[in-house]
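Model it.
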Amino acid sequence: MSNFKLDFSEINYQAGRIAIVHARFNEPLIHMMIEGAQAKLAELSVPQESIELFNVAGAYELPLAAQQVAKSGKFDAIIAIGVVIKGDTPHFDFVSTESSAGLMRVSLDEELPIIFGILTTNTEAQAEERANPRKMNKGGEAAATAIEMINLKQSLKG
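Modeled.
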């Protein structure tokens, strides 16, 4: 495990609406990720009414859901949250690869920050450590990244 930690101390929320599109599969871990994301957004002074949640069955469905949310034109960034834990079959490889590629394609096609908040781990213990807001807090990291990307995009509008 890497000890590298992103520094988001200079990020300030200015404006924008954020969608959190999340899977329901691995629900306890998903709830931790959402909790971490919402806590970080609150810490960055994002008003609760500027955040909307959408859910789908699993990580594989996240790209299409993110695309539909993006096409609504109501949001300045989307945080995609999912948890994919490696098992004994190639299912992990298909889901993690396709969900990642799909989210990037939607982000580039829609010119909208779509933050990759999908945990892809070898074990449930690794996923729990990363999802837990009191440990690695990858949900909070995704939320801070969303604000950073909104600010970047707004600063370039000229």
